Amino acid sequence: SQELEQSPQSLIVQEGKNLTINCTSSKTLYGLYWYKQKYGEGLIFLMMLQKGGEEKSHEKITAKLDEKKQQSSLHITASQPSHAGIYLCGADMEYGNKLVFGAGTILRVKS
Amino acid sequence: DVKVTQSSRYLVKRTGEKVFLECVQDMDHENMFWYRQDPGLGLRLIYFSYDVKMKEKGDIPEGYSVSREKKERFSLILESASTNQTSMYLCASSSWDLAGGPKEQYFGPGTRLTVT
């Protein structure tokens, strides 16, 4: 969706390197969700951010939502082959849990 | 764990056929959603439902209908399948938090539908 811009479109990193994926909206978001998808499969929920300035971490993945609630970043520390996949951000643009999704970032990790 | 299941992983249908895609969730979620996912276009919302017998149009409802007769089941219907409906179809469900705000959506494994 052009309402939610995700960058980069694809990323190839060497195993052990850090990386960041960004998700930007022109509107204030009610909620921002990060998902991971293996090719041809469903989406796996990673994290949800709702408050401006919020930051959450799970294992080696950290997600942040800026103070204005218009931009989020997903940071992976010391990437591993298991991190490979498609990362999607989804956002509540209006109340009601109707998510709009970014186009996704394809991550490949070279070992 | 939340479990969302979809009736088929792969489906091949002919143009003009009526197609039913079934989705079942086991977490008593109020909300259920149908998306389609296409390369370069991402996920797009087709229909959603906040309660039994309720349905709301999403961004691309044309050519589709839905049915929600029971809380745990949400069906997507292609009345007369066309080749431009070849896609990956994903079902999701969610609930509300104690403050009435939305919670994360949980997705099924997807159905890859091919219409020939």
How many DSSP helices of chain B? 0
Give the SSE string of chain B. EEEEEEEEEEE
Secondary structure tally: strands of chain B: 11
Radius of gyration of chain A: 13 Å
- Poorly predicted runs of chain A are none
Residue fraction in strands of chain A: over 45%
Shape of chain A: globular
Oligomeric description of these chains: heterodimer
Q: List low-pLDDT spans of chain B.
A: none
Secondary structure class of chain B reads mainly beta
Question: What is the CA-CA span between the terminal residues of chain B?
Answer: 37 Å
Radius of gyration of chain B: 14 Å
Work out the helicity level of chain A.
under 10%
- The assigned structural class of chain A equals mainly beta
Query: Which protein chains make the most extensive interface, counting residues with beta carbons within 8 Å of the other chain's beta carbons?
Result: A-B, 26 and 27 residues
Share of β-strand residues of chain B: over 45%
Largest sheet of chain B: 7 strands, mixed
Q: Main beta sheet of chain A: strand number and arrangement?
A: 6 strands, mixed
Element pattern of chain A in H and E: EEEEEEEEEEE
How many angstroms does the end-to-end distance of chain A come to?
A: 32 Å
Question: Secondary-structure blueprint of this entry?
Answer:
The complex is a heterodimer of chains A (111) and B (116).
Chain A: E1 4-7, E2 10-14, E3 19-25, E4 31-37, E5 43-49, E6 55-58, E7 61-65, E8 71-76, E9 85-92, E10 99-101, E11 105-110
Parallel strand pairs in A: 2-11
Antiparallel strand pairs in A: 1-3, 3-8, 4-5, 4-9, 6-7, 7-8, 9-10, 9-11
Chain B: E1 4-6, E2 10-13, E3 19-25, E4 31-38, E5 42-49, E6 56-57, E7 64-70, E8 73-78, E9 87-94, E10 106-107, E11 111-115
Parallel strand pairs in B: 2-11
Antiparallel strand pairs in B: 1-3, 3-8, 4-5, 4-9, 5-6, 7-8, 9-10, 9-11
